[in-house]
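Hmm, what's this shape?
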Amino acid sequence: MVLSISSSEEIVHDISRQALPSGLRPTAADRPGIAQPVPERDIPQQPWRTMALIVTVLVILFTSLWEWRMRTLELIPGDLGANHDAWAELRRQVDKRDVPVVIIGDSRILFDTDLDRVTQLTGVRPLQLAIAGGSGLPILENVADDPHFKGLAIVGMAETAYFDTQFAVVRPQKALALSHWESPSKRASFLIERFISTGFAMLDDNYQLSTLVFRLDHDSRPGVIGPHDDVWKAQETAAGGQTWLWRRLEHDRRMSEHFRKVWHMFFTPKPLDDKSIEGILVRTKIAVDKIRARGGDVVFVRPPSAPDLRVIEDKHLPRAKGWDALLTYTHTNGIHFDDLPAAQNLTLPESSHLSRACATVFTDAYIRSLADQTALLHPRPNSAPQLSTRNCVQPSAAGLN
């Protein structure tokens, strides 16, 4: 038996000495009874430093070219876009400090309010809690249920959003859920992205390469709405919640016409039924009463929309059944742009939102008017002079309305 083992070992020993062709090595079959060694692979001699340098240069070059291209499209560093993490961070401030004024609503009051102008006129900087594409009602109800809030809620209302209980509530619900709890990994991801975005415009979600490729789908099948006919980039959002209509939409006719087409697809002229209207009125009054019970107040603002959209909006919900009924039922005050002389003939590049300059004019007009309607908003003595349409409407922009 011993001789047998010795013989086997001698055979293995002899085989292991046999020369193998280049690139081959003994396998387990060549070494019975011996453990398979860890495979090794020879690293070929290459100019690794030179290769690493070339790769680094190419990465920097192509990244710089892409960044340059994004900036030529008028993307800017530090733009947070429609980020729920940033919104949730603002919402938490209601629980941490005494917030005298919050702004709630959809994209119109969001894009059409100049927070710096409000500060100039009142000495108070509002907390911007409006959400693009969302109804202001879920946020109003959330703030009403928060015992920390005892201030003034300015609620912007576009009828197609505020009275919608299906699609326009999705984004507010997601944002509110995030404000209640945010995982450490998601929070860290947001902080890192916010830090890096201050130096790079190409991080905009709407202009990632995958998104741009996805939008190449032109909806070739009848009746199918694909990514090409969806909402593209519409806003610029700075730290602190200040949000504007994206500057490119003010002069790029192709982009503005795309948004007009999208709004006409999304805004339905189908009349809203009385039961749905009553349900919104009841929910709103409950929220208003809760805020007033703590010493706060609620006022409503209806920002401008162009005639082509206004026709659709009035068919969906006439002013008498929507705006007027809401103020009457809730016993609240409000400012409708129809009743605001300074808000007439302002520039709406894509029919639904004001240009940046006209947003400042509209803010000046509605804040001055609201100061006469609520005791919680006080104009500063010797504040900035009143603005008018002449401060924002340019002859070159007249054709975009």
Q: What stands out?
A: Residues 1-13, 397-401 have pLDDT under 50 and may be disordered.
